[in-house]
Amino acid sequence: MTLLIINIKELLQIRESHTLKVSGIEMKTLPSIKNAFLYVENDVIIAFGSMDTCHNIKADKTIDAKDKYVLPTWCDSHTHIVYSGNREQEFVDRINGLSYEDIARRGGGILNSAKTLQNTSKDELYKQSIKRIKEVIYLGTGALEIKSGYGLNVETELKMLRVIRRIKENFPISIKSTFLGAHAIPLEYKNDKQGYIDLIINKMLPKISNEKLANYIDVFCEKGYFSLDDTEQILIAGKQFGLIPKIHVNQFNSFGGVALGVKHEALSVDHLEELSEDDIETLKDSVTMPVALPSCSYFLSIPYTPARRLIDAGLPIALASDYNPGSTPSGNMNFVVSTACIKMKMTPEEAINAATINGAYAMGIADNYGSITIGKKANLIITKAIPSYQYLPYAFGTNLIDSVIINGQLIND
Ligand code: NIG
Ligand code: FE
């Protein structure tokens, strides 16, 4: 199967294969070709260039993208998209004055979702989750990291991870799975946190490793959840089972989670709404990608990750959705990109870089996804006819996607 896209108004995010992330000032540039074509064989990008050079290419299917932009699909490197039920009552409680932390202290929050998920069959969990998966694919997401963390016991964490595996088997997008047993302390362990950490290390991890259910290990490193010491124990154990760290840090407090992530060569440190100068210094010369989740800041009315400080310090940044029932009931990466521009003062070029190539880096797939590169997967967004690519984040809330191509196949056919 071959596919040729012609007359593309502008083909965005063209990179050489050695570019796996962009940092600092480089983020301001979004390399592109105007009046371009793109040629795909099966699921791989084979050629692209200016229309002047598009001679004698024959394809099984040709798409005329006149007045339209083509860019790589979004790489959403942080989601909790596998969950059961919703938490709109907590949303109303927050409108009426409670904070996210107040709700968690009352036994709501993550524990609320865990209780629901424990009582949901694996088929029902799959059914609820794939509705959201289909939705985000139509919204232009072509790669997704998915975390466990609403199981909080051996059997239910495994149930979540097996559902993620089933999604992987049944959907064409790239999916990476992350074990987040340390998302909250379950009620049974309220007075024995170490007992729960031991359960994660001695019971959950060996089983997960045995079934090869996870690529990454995550911990909610936060006051009231898991301390630096707790987090380190879990990261070390995870690494022994071959899981690379990717952790929740600095959502509400900055107390050394970033340095811990960097020390353990975390692929990413995510949230960073609270960020000290020391945190920024620590990230320099590290392999760790800082990840911002602006829809979470929007929904919880908490500070936004200071993207300007990170970028101006020469660092990279990735953008992800954090899709989950408590802090971000949305997986719309177009909204994420807009909100990053509007609230975090990222330029459209920076935001698109952050949601494509840097997102791919933050989930370990930048060698195959995140840019228009010969040899990479043909995961593409074709926009509607729009005046400029800056119009994408500008016209927030409007769906400007005409079609999505995953592995060379048109999705909305
Ligand atoms: O990334 N902060 C920790 N975990 C999620 C929220 C989970 C929930 O509230 O259900 C987050 O925001
Ligand atoms: Fe999260």
Question: Would you give an account of this structure?
Answer:
The structure is a single chain. The protein is α/β, with parallel strands linked by helices and 413 residues long. The chain folds into 2 domains: 2-72 and 370-410, Roll (Urease, subunit C, domain 1), CATH 2.30.40; 75-363, TIM Barrel (Alpha-Beta Barrel). 35% of the residues lie in helices and 22% in strands. The chain is built from 15 helices and 16 strands. Strands 1, 2, 3, 4, 5, 14, 15 and 16 form an 8-stranded mixed sheet that branches. The protein has an 8-stranded parallel sheet with strand order 6-7-8-9-10-11-12-13. Helix 4 (122-138) crosses helix 5 (154-170), helix 5 packs parallel to helix 6 and helix 12 (333-344) packs across helix 13 (348-355). The radius of gyration is 21 Å and the shape is globular. It binds N-(iminomethyl)-L-glutamic acid and fe (iii) ion (FE).
